[in-house]
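To close the chapter, one final illustration. This time we ask the reader to focus less on the individual chains and more on the assembly as a whole: which components sit near each other, and how the overall shape emerges from the parts.
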Amino acid sequence: MMLRHNRAGLKACTTFVLLLSSTLVAQQAPILDPSVLMKVPTDAWPTYHGDYTGRRYSTLTQITSDNVKNLQLAWVYRLNTSQALANIGGEGPDTPPAAAFGFGPPTIKATPLMVNGVLYLSSPDHVWAVDARTGREIWHYFWKTRGGIHIGNRGVGLYGNWVFFLTPDNYFVSLDANTGKERWHHEIANVKREYFSTSAPIIIGKQVIIGVGGDSLDVPGYLESRDPESGLVIWRWYSTPRKGEKGAETWPNAEAMLNGGGMPWLPGTYDPELNLYYIGTGNPQPVLSGKSREGDNLWTCSIVALHPDTGKLEWFYQVSPHDTHDWDAAQTPVIFDGVIDGKPRKLLAQANRNGHFFVLDRTNGQHVLTSLHTETLNWAKGLNANGQPIPNPAKEAAIPGVLVSPDTNGATNWPPPSFNPDTGLFYVSTVQSYSMFYLTDTDDRPQGWAAAERGLGSTARTLKAIDYKTGKVRWSRPLAMTSTGPAGGPMGLLSTAGKLLFGNDGGGNFVAYDPATGKPLWHAGLGTNTSNGPETYLLDGRQYVVVGAGDTLYAFTLPR
Amino acid sequence: MGRMGRMKTLLWVVALGVSLSAQEGQFDQAAVDRGKELLVGQCGFCHGSNARGGSSGPDLTRSELVQSDEGGRELGAFLRNGRPDKGMPAFELTAPQAKDLAEFLHSSIYTNANRRLYKVLDILVGDAKAGEAYFNGAGKCSGCHSASGDLARVGRKYEPVALQQKFLAPRTGRGEGPPKPAYMDKNAIRVTVTLANRQVVRGALVRLTDFDVTIYDAETSRVRSFVRNGDVPKVDLSDPLQAHVDLWSKWTDSDIHNMTAYLVSLK
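The assembled structure is written out below.
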């Protein structure tokens, strides 16, 4: 996709000039020139997806399908969680509350940002700056938590000299990128309401876009824009309407929508020409019972386009009307330009947790196509005229149990997919799973999850390539097997102009696949499945591929 | 809840790093009971007898003020004034009373928020006769199992939820004794590796990838691995529980409920 400088781009450049002139007085140029964000960079990875599109496609061609067999380890960095030399901040007690435990050692779910030879990455309560040439730590910041579910953190945002990240106890924190010292922090949501924050901040112009998460209690979801200098709110967009607003007709009453969830818990994508920010919203609350929220429950489980300057909704497309299975629509809404029926189109595609693949026109949200990316689904009665799945009420949780495929983790999940413009294929990994759903809260006003789930297992875990023009799976590759059945599952992916697709095999190997056929061309036996989105960039003229697996970050490059 | 159910809950809770007893212990049950009595007597008319909202008052368990309260302090202070403009009168509770009321509300919120603690209700709605017909017919269960053999009196051994999970997902849950690798389980997927020299090696599957296959030989207690190059060596898998897995895409919910009723009836 061409990314031209437009109104927003000019604004970003103006901002940059202003920022530059103000900071020049104190020090040298900022670490990240914000105008970098308007291009598709090759010598930096300056934002969660590498660029704004969410394609996770790199134009770099130093590493190719021909020479990838020579790819070798450059360095390894294992997350250091010691507080001994860390910059320490946070509002929590010295001994973390029980809620902060339970997810084992920190796992790299963040896509590190790489700017000027430094990688910036995070896990819950931690941020690190790591030398991209040597893999050695430059600084470490540790946040003393008040609690919140510590399930993961997707990464940091960079603007000028500042690093931004979110904490599980819902603070928006800014650090000095040079030193890792804290500038300020602001509370964005109440941890006592079971909010927890995992998203990576996205910078658009002079705004930092952040979203909250949480689904244990029935609380409203929202996305915020904050000022990178003051950290204060510019706008807040609630993912459910308020009384009298458009969309309220899809809820039975104000109480239901005010407590209706819809957490935008992953970073979105951005089209600078249309000046629209695209994000997928979370599931409605209560999660597994729809009794107290009859209707479609807008704008939960939807792909929405917002004006980044105001937070106003431009269009929406709901991929799971009236969801009762925890299948949020937070998965990356990938944007690219393509050709449909011979006509050039500005498109947006999402492989959704509910088992369907959607393609939309991103200028107006018009439906282009819907297909199945996972075959075992048994919860929908088909598609309506607008391509939306029609939920079968018989597959909503019931006291004696109903068998549903997929389970609440969905047919895919948060790990970033990849779209490759050279092959026209959208890459995603999927799971064919089954669970029993038992209604446990029979009150007329159920709360929280309101039902229990017991997993049966999965019949397949697969890496797939989907043709965006037809929605059909072009190739499909089963992942590893273990003594209990299929292994692995949703994985972060990266494709490159070097005719490579990087991912894992579900069996602890990091793999370079042929994006046209799915044939493995190279692998590294890391012993643990990769746990974030792989990235690539040029540094000192050499192309690196960097990926996290568990608590360890690996960098690969070709021999000199 | 049956033993497997309890075990599963316990595992979940341990996995969450939260001790069940410690968390349950954070609520004083006597105070919760006193608080519930207070709620029903003084607040229930408007807010409902379970605090989830009533004729004229909102849901208290969803209230940010309640959720943010610490030990009844904020709640007590609020109640002293009420919200007269919204028709909420003042209530003069003693500090211990406010604390009891808060204890009840916080324990309700905790129960709502922690789905691992949700209790499955009465799932016995099926027709045992229809379950028996499925067992001997479409389900093909009688090919491996017998009501008078391995399943004799199975309805006495397990509670309905545990029994239902046993036939739907016999692989989940853990067996007796200390934890062991899944490949040592009797139901581990079996693998046959045929080497280039036609030698055949059999065992339980540890892991199969595009690049290697690892097996466990129970007789020698030995783990062995073989590097794969395309289709060499040849690898064949067989799952002792394949019949159960194959049913996942075939069960109707009625079949499941009927089968549960039938197995429960085997007393």
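Residues 3 and 24 of chain B are 20 Å apart (CA to CA). Residues 1-24 of chain B have pLDDT under 50 and may be disordered. With these observations in hand, you are ready for the problems at the end of the chapter.
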